[in-house]
Amino acid sequence: MKTxxxxxxxxxxxxxxxxxxxxxxxxxxxxxEDVDVLNxxxxxxxxxxxxLYVGKLRKDLIRFMRDKIHQLSNKSLHLFVNxxxxxxxxxxxxEKNIPEYQNLLQTTIDxxxxxxxxxxxxxDSLIVRTVNLDLDELDSNQNLDEKVSNxxxxxxxxx
Length: 159
Hints:
Number of helices: 6
Helix content: 25-40%
CATH topology: Rossmann fold
Structural class: alpha/beta
CATH superfamily: Flavodoxin domain
Order of helices and strands: EHEEHHEHEHH
């Protein structure tokens, strides 16, 4: 069984989570921006990762998932998201972003997120500060290893 962790990231938080998952699953790790030719036939399991911005997955990951749905539909598919704002439930996110995957994704998880204002451009920083008046209430990646372990445990039960 070969596993692929395919992720999109903007500021690096999702990449950090993707690396942690890949390290713990002995999986191949690929940034969606680096996908030119990817032989999906090599993989039985694909774990997608994306940040959420205003309840939306990254467009490049959505595009890939839609373009490759026929190649992916016979695989064990999973999704994790990172987010920095309060968002709808993950089922609603899937329904709005990738409804064709509602019955294909076996495991989904929201890892919460962090803000690194030093990496953000001015506009994103202003939006985050405006929308998130109480940043302390948000989940963070403080317990990332524990969250990843729980996620991997769920994956193990799916095989």
